[in-house]
Amino acid sequence: xxxxxxxxxxxxxxxxxxxxxxxxxxxxxxxxxxxxxxxxxxxxxxxxxxxxxxxxxxxxxxxxxxxxxxxxxxxxxxxxxxxxxxxxxxxxxxxxxxxxxxxxxxxxxxxxxxxxxxxxxxxxxxxxxxxxxxxxxxxxxxxxxxxxxxxxxxxxxxxxxxxxxxxxxxxxxxxxxxxxxxxxxxxxxxxxxxxxxxxxxxxxxxxxxxxxxxxxxxxxxxxxxxxxxxxxxxxxxxxxxxxxxxxxxxxxxxxxxxxxx
Amino acid sequence: xxxxxxxxxxxxxxxxxxxxxxxxxxxxxxxxxxxxxxxxxxxxxxxxxxxxxxxxxxxxxxxxxxxxxxxxxxxxxxxxxxxxxxxxxxxxxxxxxxxxxxxxxxxxxxxxxxxxxxxxxxxxxxxxxxxxxxxxxxxxxxxxxxxxxxxxxxxxxxxxxxxxxxxxxxxxxxxxxxxxxxxxxxxxxxxxxxxxxxxxxxxxxxxxxxxxxxxxxxxxxxxxxxxxxxxxxxxxxxxxxxxxxxxxxxxxxxxxxxxxx
Amino acid sequence: xxxxxxxxxxxxxxxxxxxxxxxxxxxxxxxxxxxxxxxxxxxxxxxxxxxxxxxxxxxxxxxxxxxxxxxxxxxxxxxxxxxxxxxxxxxxxxxxxxxxxxxxxxxxxxxxxxxxxxxxxxxxxxxxxxxxxxxxxxxxxxxxxxxxxxxxxxxxxxxxxxxxxxxxxxxxxxxxxxxxxxxxxxxxxxxxxxxxxxxxxxxxxxxxxxxxxxxxxxxxxxxxxxxxxxxxxxxxxxxxxxxxxxxxxxxxxxxxxxxxx
Amino acid sequence: xxxxxxxxxxxxxxxxxxxxxxxxxxxxxxxxxxxxxxxxxxxxxxxxxxxxxxxxxxxxxxxxxxxxxxxxxxxxxxxxxxxxxxxxxxxxxxxxxxxxxxxxxxxxxxxxxxxxxxxxxxxxxxxxxxxxxxxxxxxxxxxxxxxxxxxxxxxxxxxxxxxxxxxxxxxxxxxxxxxxxxxxxxxxxxxxxxxxxxxxxxxxxxxxxxxxxxxxxxxxxxxxxxxxxxxxxxxxxxxxxxxxxxxxxxxxxxxxxxxxx
Lengths: 261, 261, 261, 261
Known about the structure:
4 copies of one chain form a homotetramer.
Chain A: E1 3-9, H1 13-16, H2 18-23, H3 28-37, E2 42-48, H4 58-62, E3 66-70, H5 80-91, E4 95-99, H6 106-112, E5 119-131, E6 145-155, E7 165-172, E8 177-186, E9 189-194, H7 207-220
Parallel strand pairs in A: 1-2, 1-3, 3-4, 4-9
Antiparallel strand pairs in A: 5-6, 5-7, 7-8, 8-9
Helix pairs in contact in A: 5-6
């Protein structure tokens, strides 16, 4: 059984910025997908923002077990219809991993219901990630801490809901901390946010970072069949109640009528 | 110090349905506000959907410590701009309580990031609410369980994120259960969902229900000053880093540049 | 890769009570283990309270990936040393599932830090379990609700900490509700509490109950190596600090001294 | 209405160590209590380990709304009976705040159900606490971050259960991070852990630290009457079931019999 991963790349900096192009000549999404494909249990493909429907067609989502999202400069260019499509797929059971600047992507904000804001500094400073949940599957095979010599700083307060679990917390040389690995569930879908990955540094070539993403894919994957209509609000008629009851009192809805939305 | 509450009423059924008009001649919102105003620490006013901006002007929100929302038939008529205004006020620190069919209201879905769906039946059946978090402030003065002889059924699975705390769980005569009292935090704002309150039954005249809503107002209220810009993502320049660091490596942003959204 | 399960049986009622002996002639633990062994990925064995060290030797725990615990009448007879042994194994990464009346077992109370109390009634009434977390792995292959025609009632408030996730909530014919499936993490170990299983009813022969227990075994299993000393509190000497720091100010401990416990 | 606080001091270092005695001539507990007593809504007294029953008599607990606990060197000398007394008071509704090295105190470990371990270094290094939950009442009046120039380092992984909310995360000059402010509920009682306070530094004279402790007292305080028996597991006889049910099937317990523990 193979986990089908789709890596979504914004794919702008790679073409506009020489440094990014130098580190990720085939795009950040390809580097991430290539690393995942070294695991025999994963089959990762890529789509980019410039594809039709940003590459996020209904067919593609139906064939995706776990979606990985990296965006930064062009958050605002992602169409709202695609955002709703992603949200619906997550609610129906697709796993999703948001990387770094995707904290401000439309689908992440849509699923969190919060501003998802933070403070930041681009100084190539040292980041050290500390494990805060021992033996968490997302940390499998990793030491209690690991370093990225050059990273962008993200600082607290991070404007997200309290997670199910805080898996990593980052230390920054300039004096800040950040909750760097956070798990959520939205509808039937598992959600993981992972902080590292500024585009001007070779973060996605780092073995520990690649390991976290691979672990997160396995954690987020849910083999259960997708829920057909994750927003359904079915009426249960009185005559098919599980316990025998008699209808009482005044009613607003006629029999068989749909509920309001 | 008085807690300023605004009760938002959809105010449609009260004018279209004789039964609802009979139970709530001045509107459900007025019944809720009147009950709150019996407490000397609360000052509750009402607005209705038909008011300009649905009554949710920036000035009104600035003067509101806790917003209470009841809607059902006309969820779709609430403007998206007002929904964003409510969300921003919550993120900045306003408390908010969603009642019954407001599970499908736009602001609740906006803040949860999930479908917020459930199953339902309108049969006037018995509901019994059980306390699941002992001595929770929202349950102050209440017994371990209380009953509503006639209510609409809402059944699990309820499509919401795992809450901070589950405060009440409901039993229904027809065989279902429902997590009836759930707490969340979104940005700086406290959020409470409370299930009872179908418009064709006198639920908001019930003393226990009124007590829960009053308790929830006090729980949701946060005396801290509102956060001015709850979505701000400030850049921290290298030269003002809390620890002395030297800028290293390539940069994407020029000095003083705003981040992408 | 096979998950090694140990089913711990109190093994008292089966010998003292004809009804229990009739339903579980080889003991409840054997019924549970036999059901698990039908899955090719699981290898389940049994131990009973009457064994040396209640069957919970250090060697047995070292060979156990997931421990299942059923006890009722003889909670007080379990030695405190064995309770600590179990707690240490969980903290080091062993999964553990507590069934039904094990809510009052010593190891469960030890791991929860709360009274774990509830209300109860032995009337053979109908219990209906509702799923509250869609597509949760512990509910894999199960419908949104299932029934046990005869069960003991457990009622809220259930004196446990707020769980990571509430997976099931039960409805009882006599009017109560109960959070029937709850997940926790304690140290590196996953913990699941599952309510059904009164000894005078054939609950552990029920296919849905067996499915939940099998799913929970797979959920609780953590393939990571056990943590050698889950209570270790290592001193990090100044000279091996990850960032260069200079010792400042007065000290309580001499160099190389152990911390206080 | 005044919140009655009892500050428990281990009171050993203050008599054995000149540095500690110099910073806290009347004991750390007295410094903490004096700071609290500057607030007109709080009445704080102190007890010390050397008092009869360590000062924790049933009468004292009955008169305590919030207990504050600081211990380090003599954790092992605290009697288990007193630990159970404290746990019972918390379960019945008393608030409790554990400070710094009390992470290894018996009552904290008892309430958490985990090892509560961490890494540590005594180098007088800089600690900076960051707020992670905006406008949390425990952070009222505090900036987004504040510093303690000299503190002992505590590092992750911190062996505690996932909290209800993470309120503070600390940055240390030597490269570690730590979840420094954590909220829990145990039974009916609110629990807060707050990291700073090594005895050889003047931490409890710091205005921000004093403010956190005062805020935490107000947060932990629950005005509801204490639960008389927080471990009670009442039987609900069939004839007094809330819904009419008929007893069915075999029974283990005779009518009116107590449950097993």
